[in-house]
Amino acid sequence: MLGFSGSARAATPPAQAQAPQAPAAEPATPRMPVTLQVNGQARPLEVDPRTTLLDALRERIGLTGSKKGCDHGQCGACTMIVNGRRINGCLTLAVMHQGAEITTIEGLGQPDALHPLQAAFVKHDGYQCGYCTPGQICSGVAVLAEIAAGIPSHATGDLTAPPELSESEIRERMSGNLCRCGAYSNIVEAMTEVAGHQTARGQA
User: Fold this and answer.
1) Mean per-residue pLDDT for 194-200?
2) Scanning 15, 71, 104, 117, which has its CA 20 to 30 A from the CA of 1?
3) Whole-angstrom Cα distance, residue 161 to residue 164?
4) Which residues lie below 8 Å from residue 103, measured CB to CB, with a gap of 6+?
């Protein structure tokens, strides 16, 4: 067929649809070596540097006593003791604790050899569903050590004197550990009993 110019025009073939390109694979995050001293045992690992200490203990080592609750550092279910101080395992990275001394609930005691605070929790019914209990006990052990060391809290009235073992001190120091079952008064009783026994031994 002739066009307006009087010359024949070749039909232009439609553009061929191109096959969709697969997205380029992201480079794998390099693993980092770290050795954690967990409950008195060296545990060498290679982890993604973004791995939290809680996930390393639970998923890589198999110590599932420390619980993942909120995963935002708000409930205290993942509390563990690192170099003598209690921390939230979900808020810190495993690679930050090369060589650190880490104690989890498994390292405090076992069913046939309970830690005194574990036994007191059983005696005073300091748990109900039990989900928060490992963090409560680890935090409680560290709290009693803090009071014994004379470290003040927001509830300490006289900062020049050693803190007293009072209900207000215990409640303030344990306020970062939530119990949805509401066993707070029983937890205070358990901690008070253990602290009394420790004081009596210290005075003997």
Assistant:
1) 75
2) 15
3) 9
4) 39, 80, 81, 82, 138
The type of residue at 126 is G
Domain boundaries, the chain: 31-108, 110-204
Q: What phi-psi label fits residue 150: left (phi over 0), alpha (psi between -120 and 50 degrees) or beta? A: left
In the numeric block, which tokens belong to residue 176? 């970062």
pLDDT at 202: 58
Same fold, 31-108 and 110-204: no
The CATH H-level superfamily of 110-204 is [2Fe-2S]-binding domain (1.10.150.120)
Span 83-125, pLDDT tens digits:
999 999 999 999 999 999 999 999 999 899 999 999 999 999 9
Predicted model pTM: 0.83
Answer whether CATH 3.30.70.141 is correct for domain 31-108: no
